[in-house]
Amino acid sequence: IFVNYAVAGQFTVYLNGTQTLTYSGDLTTDSNTTLAGVDFGQTTTCAGASNLFNSTSEVLVSTRDTRAILGIATQVPTANGVTHNFDTGTAANAAALQMSIADAAPQNSTTPGQIDEYQVAPALATNLNILAIVQKVRITRGNTGPQSFQFVTRVGGVDYFSATSTPTLFFDTISNTMDVSPATGLSWLPTEIPNASASFNMGLKSIA
User: Fold this and answer.
1) Which one, out of 18, 33, 133, 184, has a CA that is 20 to 30 A from the CA of 103?
2) Beta strands 9-15 and 158-161: pairing type?
3) Which of 119, 20, 130, 126 lies closest to 75 in space, CA to CA?
4) Which alpha helices (DSSP H) does 29-174 contain, by range?
5) What is the pTM of this model?
6) Distance between CA atoms of 107 and 201, rounded to whole angstroms?
7) From residue 197, how far is each of 78, 107, 130 by CA, in Å?
8) CA 5 to CA 29: how far, in whole Å?
9) Which helix (H) or strand (E) holds 79?
10) H or E segment at 25?
11) Smallest Cα–Cα separation from 76: which of 111, 8, 35, 123?
12) Tens of pLDDT along 129-176?
């Protein structure tokens, strides 16, 4: 789906790279000049419609043309990484990015500077052209202790840290997009992301 949200805007839907629907004109709602969010859903006229629902998984939002992207590969924590010194937390719980699971038993750091790394799986195909790697975490902070955090990516046995983010006092989802490998400054190679390996970890670092 391509959206140019403007008075002279455009909305185009593609299916497997083929245009199926397009509209040009005023896309603004009540003269709002910015788009704060989007809902994906379905409509129906059949009986019992109130009982129907749908789910959309692994949605990619980008400012670039995504028609050439064939899919999204999802890796989850499977075992402790090289550095794992948060006060609490397990790979199984870190893999459960769900409010009903992960929020109930979070990874927890009470001391700034602690690092929580995990090995990830499954293995990626070796012939992929990788557009970007996105880390995602549900996170909150307390009134005391570490107030901020950094994403950690271990590539080739070296830890690389993102910019510092400060979460709210309520659980929220924060992501970090890496268009290039921090180790080379070039496009990611599948060989940099070995399956369940000490040379490639993902995680967090607590910041004061």
Assistant:
1) 133
2) unpaired
3) 119
4) 91-94
5) 0.73
6) 16
7) 10, 21, 19
8) 10
9) strand 76-84
10) strand 18-25
11) 123
12) 898 899 988 899 999 999 999 999 999 999 999 999 999 999 888 999
